[in-house]
Amino acid sequence: MRIKKVLNNNAFITHNDDHQEMIVIGKAIAYGKHFNDTVDESKVYKMFTPISRGDRKLILDMVNEIPIQYFQIAKQIVDKAESDENIELTDSVYIALTDHISSSVDRIKSGLMLTNQFLWEIRSYYPKEYQIGQWAIQLINGTCDVTLPDDEAGFIAIHIISGELGEQLDEFHEIINFIKKITSIVTYQLSVEIDRDSLDYNRFVTHLKFFWQYMMENDKKHTIGDLSDEMLAIIKGKKVAAYECALKVRDFVQKTYHYTLNNEDLLYMTIHIARIADAN
């Protein structure tokens, strides 16, 4: 890998085998280097291949303005998400995360803390992303000698969620509202207080997130487990209340999203609702 232009001690521009421009970042990777020099590739944190002029300008501005340690922290968080949870994240998430970490540290050192209005929902509906956020703030605190509040774990989780949703952050809000509405229907219809930390509720939330995805994509090819026992229980009428609740959910989804639950959809919904009901 040869340098085409030094940006600073920690970044330079090169070209890949397809003659595309690449921006390469790594601590002291370009220190003392000049045009056409080779570099130690083991020092590379991240390589960007900008798609547009806007992307290129954004990355170059960040390289010049943001200390290298924040790029390194962002890479560790992205690596953690990808290795531990098999979450695939795009370069745009890495860029947004780097910028957010830098801003968060600057804010906290200035005594300014932001409240995350979705913190409860993130903890309840996206636990694995939230756990990565918690791990991330411990990393940031130790590296940058700050004490970030739990709200920041939620903000980092939102960046990870947005990457999973293909940067469609509006969809995150829609999914949150969808889960809240369905949960409210179950709570009201069954007159139960749901334990939102329970395994059954977490399974229900996971099912609702998958249901949302195939409802939006109109993809009916989904199979979750062996349903023989649950089907038998429903046929015998042991889950009448849960089934009636599932019908309320069906009516809400039909009216709000113009999607009609088929018998299989109803069955899955009934099973999850029944598990919540049985736990109360």
TrEMBL record:
Entry keywords, A to Z: Repeat
SUPFAM superfamilies: PTS-regulatory domain, PRD, SacY-like RNA-binding domain
Cited Pfam families: CAT_RBD, PRD
GO MF annotation terms: RNA binding
InterPro entries: BglG_antiterminators, CAT_RNA-bd_dom, CAT_RNA-bd_dom_sf, PRD, PRD_sf
Occurrences of domain PRD (ranges): 65-170, 171-280
GO biological process: regulation of DNA-templated transcription
SMART domains in UniProt: CAT_RBD (SM01061)
Domain of life: Bacteria
PANTHER family: CRYPTIC BETA-GLUCOSIDE BGL OPERON ANTITERMINATOR
Protein name listed in UniProt: Transcription antiterminator, BglB family
Organism expressing this protein natively: Lactiplantibacillus plantarum (strain ATCC BAA-793 / NCIMB 8826 / WCFS1)
